[in-house]
Amino acid sequence: MRSSVSVILSSPAPDTSMSHPDYEQTAHDHAAVLLLVKHVGNQLKQKNFSRVYERLSRVNHVKVVDSVGVSREVSARYIKEYPVENNDWGDYQTHRRLLGLISVEKYDKELNELCRVHESLKVKYSSTLFDSRCVLFGPPADTSPSEPNVLSTPSNFKTRALFYEDCEACVGLEDQISEFLCSLFWVLESKRLERSREKVERVSLLLAPFERKDFVGLDLESRSNRKRCVGRMTKHLGDLSLQAGLATEALSYYSSAIDILKAVGDWLWLGGAYEGLCAASVVLLYPNLSRSFPLQRNASLQEGSPGKQSWGRITKENKKRKGIYRSADNRREKNGRSFFHFSLRCKLSVLKDSTVYILNSQNVTTEFIFLFLRSSSISTNSLPSDMSPTEVQQEIQNVLSPEDIPKRYREAIIHYSKYLNAGIIEMEACFKAARIAVEQGCTLQASTFLQNVIFINLTLSELEKIQRFTSLSDLYTQIGFHRKASFCRRLAATRYVSAQNPQPNWAQCYQLMLQALSGHKLLLDPTEFPKDGLQGWPALQIQLLQELVVAARRMGHSALATRHMTFLLQTMWDHLLPAEQRDLALQLQVLAAQCEGAPVPLVLNSGVVIPPANLTNLPQIWSFVLRDLEPQLRPQKIEKVKEDSGPFLFTPIHFGSLERKTVVTSSKMDYFWVEGDVCEVAMELYNPLPFELKVLNMRLLTSGVVFESVPVSLSLPPESGPHPVILSGTPKEIGELEVLGYSTHTLGVKSNCRLRHIGGFPHPLYSVDVIPALPKMQVLTSLPKSASSGSLGETLTVVMSTNITLYAGESAECSVTLSNVGDLPIEMVEVSVHSTLEPLTQEQVFQWSQENLQAQLPLQPGADASFTVYLYSLADFLNVSSTAYGSQPASFLSGPSSLPSRLSSPTFGREQASRRSELTASFRSGGSSHSGSSLGSSRSPFSKLGAPNTSKTLEGQLKLRYSGGAGLESGYCRLSSVTLSVEMLPSVQITNWDVLPAETNSQFYLVLDVANITSHELELQYTPSKCILIEGNESCRIPVPVNRCPLSKLTKLYRGGKISADDRLELDQICSEHVAASVDLRWHILSTGTRGRVSLKGITLTPEMLDLVRMSPLQWEVTLNSQPVKPQEELSCRAGQCLQLGISVHNFLERSLWQVCLAVQFYQDHQNGVNNYRLETRLANAGASKVLLPEVRNILV
Amino acid sequence: MAVCVTVIGKENSPKYISCLNPELDLQFQYKVHTSLDVVEEKLSSVGKTSGDVRELYLGLLYSTEEHKIFGYVTNTKIKFIIVVESSNTLLRDNEVRTMFRKLHTIYTDVVCNPFHIPGDPIISKNFDATVKSIMSGNA
């Protein structure tokens, strides 16, 4: 036999080797009758044919009572294609024989033609065919019912034709097929009986196809060959018995065949016998494993490969499994069998139908499947005799124990592997064994069988290789080896488009690639992709995705290619080298040029949905910040509701803090956006690619209220960033707006980048409230603009800054124009000024007419309104603080002490009356004697004034609060500010002042040293009729006649009693104001024509000055010889002449004076500074020089 | 001795891959990746049967015509996979065990590094050098 084996090995006969592997075979198929269902012709639609095929396939079990009265179970296996070469192996394994033929077609006219095709098929398989049927559909009932011959087959057509009107109902089709199956059984049974009755001596040698020529010329009558013949025939009988439903008989045939064949060393047939033994045992042990779920597909084998070392371990594994198996078995006993079995079946088939169950949480699902597989393998064996495998084993002789089945299979496979031409048998055996192992739950064992498939070296067509890989993949999936399954799928996919494949099929390649994703832990939805990238093998994932892209591209689906490339770039970014990133990005650009990527799910023809992939890495986003509106556009509450939070401004206790639910998350903005206004989001982008990245059509993604986003296009330089980008848009409704992210169009791919899916952002979205629309106002002033926005507090809302230069005391007008540039009428405008000045001063500096403005409202869109702000350059002309002169005006008049009496007078400050008399003198002397000196010295203080009198700036913010439309109704307004900056140049300065008595009692002279600090000639008008010209930077002294302060203003002074310090201050103030109000100084710079007023506000007066400023409480009229005498008037008279001195006193106080002592005192003035008061020898009094008046009445009363 | 050494994390993602021939890197990755199926199966079957201390060495995971793939799983479910050439018949089981034990030791050193975050890919030069020496059979 060795020689024959060597012959076989040396000369492979390709024509006789079975070249078409059937990967779907199971052990149960050994016991089935093979039927070919053929679609002849082309009238019947493929879909309808499939439906008919499905119906036929369901008739796969028929119970027949045989001649002895024993019930036999006949199973059938239906196939659509069967190569004749495989039929030739029928002698070796009878289940490979095609026994029945059913042709299916719809006919119209050419019935004869169909019959001819059917007959030719019969001829093709004539060597094995027992019987055939022809299922014919149509024609419609109304078509020529008169022609009976339409429904009749030609007379020479021997096949029974089954006519049906249409392929939907086909009443009785199943019955017909059952009957057909029965007829086949009887033929088979007869053949079996015929064979079994053959005499042992006379049996012929059965041959596998490739063996035929090897036995030519061999002595068939030799003892060993005789035994060989017998052994082979015994095995053959076993095959037939198994097919005929006599599994137990088959077992004994196989066992004896094994003994015989082992003895003669007929390895090929020994292998067949082992396999038969296994198949029969499986049929007995697991009767319900048969093809109820058409799960197994195909695979292919090779042969003659080494590396069977691992086989030894199978048995070990198997023993381990046995424990589980047994215990599960016992569990089954306790459960209600039939129900349990049923439910498991359902679940199992559900699981197997769906191809997506591996997608997620692999381990869990795997366990799940295992559970069911294991359970099913045990509980599905509802034996006809209701026996468990162990019972079956005890009951029936020769049956293999479950753990022995893989062992025998292993032996069979080892024997097969010795023959190159038996490669396909070996491969099929591997698949069958693997399926059994899967059912038994021996995962590792199954994987070893499957692993062996790879080693079998066969020359197969590419299509068969693909089938092999997909079958392997299916089985690997079943045992939970998803990585291996994916690997096989990927290999199958590559075979579709390999160089050897004459008809590359990229679509199929793509489909398989797609199925391989799950095993690499790739989900097509990038959002579900783990961000940390911990799962899976990046290198393999990248490889697979790249292949997927190529497949999609080559199959002509550019959108898919773009989608997958986008996915690859998006999810694998971190794992790609910079060069790869660049290359892939460029590839994506090329792909997207053919079909632009869009963020919508793609639905394939197969029903698979490819979720959108968005590029969030290109460009990378660094920050995403919502922006408040421009300060002058920010809505503000018109009326702020002051919350009553107790007497404390701040309290750590939050009232109502128990309501934790109301805590607003920080993703909610604390400001508002306004309907119809452009709102912005600031972003920072980074371009990680080494080439310029163009981002087109960048918009904001929002939900909630309607939002009109403005697209932005930008170009980012290579490998640079962050680039600030502002995305803007306009809310069109009121309510809450949610900003979810942004959309881009880059590298030809449109992406919706949601913050939710981008790592590193604290909030998945930002929300902001949109309030009703508000008008927009533009503010213009007639004054020139200035660059600085001013230094006052809130400069944010400033829309305009103006600057004006005024000389101190000058006035100006500023016309403010308000234009409504929005779409809504402005119905409310409020004007206020905010500055650091005192409110009173502020009112003087800035003045406007609110009424004038109100009259112009409402302001329609596009209309203007204007009002005028009057500016007055208010300044302190008195220069009090700069020198000692103003603050100590007393020193102005001091100097040569012409007033020793006053300064040393003990009555000073105590008796007003006595002081007053002295003051007149002192003023007179001071006014005359010191004017010169003070003027002379005025140069030096004046030069000192220069520094502090340089320009000074007054600033005010004109605040305009305005609102209108819906925004006004909901209580919002906007605030615009204009900074009015008044730069004050010094004009004139009062450096000194004093008072002098005037010619009349009711007036006094205010003497002012006025300095012109400008460099221009200045005309100063100090009374209605008097003007003086002052050169630039010169000063001069002017007397201004002023009415004395009437006593009516000073009632407090003489009310008696103590005068408090406060009262005194108040009185001083009154006098000061009186003076300021009475003096009207106007200057006029001749060269520029500017005019202004000088205010003496705040002038300080010393007590001495005050005496003159104030009206005296008593007025005198002195008459000499009844002639009124004016003060300081000189009268001449001769010595010895009698003069009549009349004195009348008028009381101007509000009350009468009592006990007034009126005394006349004379003195002699020597005109040399000496006064002589001792006049006893010079003057004689006639009458009293001292009179006591009991009451001097108030003149006014 | 070995042609490829890999360290695989708890979640079955690669932490370290080193091949004698860097050009075949992807091919080895495929092999090692598919061998994980066997590792998982072995782990799950052992875990069910006994609560005893598991043997860390898993033995031969599977073999192809060119390579044999051995596995080793630490108690923290870190997997070491070593690929050796099938033609190297001199290599015995014991030597493979020794390689794994060495690998485990240096892996422990890497994890002891306070700057190494468990779960991160291994980028230690020292580890790399030692693995290279294990592969060449010098260590």
Structure description:
- The complex is a heterodimer of chains A (1197) and B (139).
- Chain A has 1197 residues and is α+β, with helices and mostly antiparallel strands.
- Chain A has 7 domains: 17-141 and 153-197, Rossmann fold; 202-290 and 394-459, Tetratricopeptide repeat domain (Serine Threonine Protein Phosphatase 5, Tetratricopeptide repeat), CATH 1.25.40; 474-492 and 506-527 and 540-610; 620-639 and 665-771, Sandwich (Immunoglobulin-like), CATH 2.60.40; 794-881 and 949-982, Immunoglobulins (Immunoglobulin-like); 987-1053 and 1063-1109, no CATH class; 1114-1192, no CATH class.
- Helices cover 34% and strands 23% of the residues of chain A.
- In chain A, the strands form 11 sheets. Chain A has a 6-stranded mixed β-sheet, with helices on both faces.
- In chain A, a hairpin with a 5-residue loop joins β39 (1164-1165) and β40 (1171-1172).
- In chain A, α9 (312-334) crosses α11 (362-379).
- The N and C termini of chain A lie far apart (167 Å).
- The model of chain A is unreliable at 1-16, 142-149, 291-386 and 881-949 (pLDDT under 50).
- Chain B has 139 residues and is of the alpha+beta class.
- Chain B has a single domain (2-136), classed as Beta-Lactamase.
- Helix content of chain B is 41%, strand content 24%.
- Chain B contains 3 helices and 5 strands, in the order ββαβββαα.
- Chain B has helices spanning 25-49, 93-112, 125-136, and strands at residues 2-8, 14-19, 57-63, 67-73, 79-85.
- A 5-stranded antiparallel β-sheet of chain B has the order 2-1-5-4-3, sandwiched between helices.
- In chain B, α2 runs antiparallel to α3 (125-136).
- The radius of gyration of chain B is 14 Å and the shape is globular.
- The mean pLDDT of chain B is 85.
- The interface between A and B is medium-sized, with 35 and 28 residues.
- Chain A: Its main location: Golgi.
- Chain A: Residues 999-1109 form the Trs120/TRAPPC9 third Ig-like domain.
